[in-house]
Amino acid sequence: MASDTGATRPPYEQIVRWIEESGFETLRKRSEEAEAIFRRIGITFAVYGEGGDPERLIPFDLIPRVFSALEWRQLDRGIRQRAQALNAFLYDVYHRAEIIRAGIIPADLVYRNDAFLPQMIGFDPPGKVYSHIVGIDIVRTAGTSFQVLEDNCRTPSGVSYMLENREILMRMFPELFSGGAVEPVDSYPQQLRKTLEELAPAACTGDPVVVVLTPGSLNSAYYEHSFLADLMGVELVEPQDLFVDEGRVWMRTTLGPQRVDVIYRRIDDDFLDPLNFRPDSMLGIAGIFDVYRAGGVTLCSAPGAGVADDKAIYTYVPEMIRFYLGETPILENIPTYKCANRDECAYVLEHLDELVVKEVHGSGGYGMLIGPKSTKEEQEAYAKRIIADPEDFIAQPTLDLSTAPTLGGAELAGRHVDFRPFCLVGQQIRLVPGGLTRVALREGSLVVNSSQGGGVKDTWVLRD
Q: What average pLDDT does this structure show over 425-435?
């Protein structure tokens, strides 16, 4: 909220006045009310294997994260550019692989990647779009610099919190929005549906029938699945609700089978089709991948899209932008060491106490070593893992991440934050002015993931 000089940054001037006028105790009470609302309407996520109640509430912090219109214009251009390059990369590696032929990305990094699906080679998904919802995790460093921490090209979660955070804040403090200074985000469900409809398969005639495919109520993001289906006005289906017949996918309804054209799936590739992937999958729809390949249904995002959000592939995205788009990256990566490179691996092993080391295929904040906060024993154990499988790890410097004012204890406190916008890719690229701000609520923590004790904030983009 404060600049390097200690003065309040202009985008936060309204927030400062609101905090002063409301008073800290009032804000604390309203925060408790917000938590009760979240719990009453069931906005939870699930964590299994840790004991206790697996259904947990992500803490909601009342103090919003604010971007100026100028900041958003930079972010908007950079996010769109990155989403376009990632989709160009996916099309390329499943076709002529020009970026590999050019020596820019090592072949092994792509073809030995667990997320790479040989079954997708040569197939053109509708619109040549593989990743339809791209979630790009962004941090602010060095005061005003935005950098990308990682890419999420399969099913980035959290958009329900973006929408619900805004709804709660507008309900509790309508005066904050009465002047129309904050850009709205409530058009996201309609924009998502339009994006999905644009990519209906060749066999579709008439208005496309869109569904959201969920593994079921035990999935950690089930609330989001049902929430998005409801807001888009489409059916939420589980695997047993769908079947394949005569080259099409059908949905069981009380009025008989109904054709399905576009499936926004929240089921991993491995479990999607027991005839083509894991034969023991209890979540798959037998033959659905064959229908997809034949142009009878569209799967969003495409099977095999996960190769683009591997943390080792991430290190090459700036080169993708130059190679495919002929442009200079607007948003740069965090400096990253690839342990698959012998020299870089040696540096990482010598500086484990200074670096953040991550598993290439890791997610949710698990499997990380945060060097400055680790013990010598933890570093030695992690070094053995790196030495055994160096290609499975990358490392990054411990960043001087920006902080945002957060309600905590008896006063406002700065806590580290990141930002995940949700970029929709169809016949055009769409991006609502906002996203999910995640906050590390534990003092000094750099881990914002909800499964690791992080919380969420509303994200404001101010109008000019």
A: 97
